Amino acid sequence: MELFGWYLLAINVVTFAVYGIDKFKAKRGMWRIKEATLLGLAVAGGSIGAILGMYLFRHKTKKPAFTVGVPLIILAQAAVLFYLTNM
């Protein structure tokens, strides 16, 4: 269980950083990170990092795939975690 906690911490830090990098690149008209990658990181456990990155960097906050999708991913992950810890 401790290893899982470290994984979640790492994936959320990476996800947050990737959202920041993508915003940086967007402002400068540079090559961008695919939206599927950004959402995939959220699904892989980085949903908290994704939501923090979205709102702290003001990035992807007008796209329904993110404004609706990331909170739904968080709810789904919370439901799975609740189920697994109460088996």
In words, what does this structure look like?
The chain is mostly helical. It has one domain. 79% of the residues lie in helices and 0% in strands. It has four helices and no strands. Helix 1 (2-27) crosses helix 2 and helix 2 crosses helix 4. The radius of gyration is 14 Å and the shape is globular.
- Name the beta content range: under 5%
How would a textbook summarize the main sheet?
A: none
Look at the structure and give the mean pLDDT. Answer: 96
Structural class: mainly alpha
Number of domains: 1
> How many alpha or pi helices?
4
Percent in helix = over 70%
What string gives the helices and strands in order? HHHH
Q: In angstroms, what is the radius of gyration?
A: 14 Å
Cα distance, first to last residue? 15 Å
Count every beta strand, where a strand is a DSSP E run of 2 or more residues.
0
Shape: globular
Uncertain segments are none
How would you summarize this macromolecular structure in one to three sentences?
The protein is mainly alpha-helical. About 80% of the residues lie in helices and about 0% in strands.
Element layout with pairings:
Elements: H1 2-27, H2 35-56, H3 64-67, H4 69-85
Helix pairs in contact: 1-2, 2-4
Structure keywords:
87 residues; mainly alpha
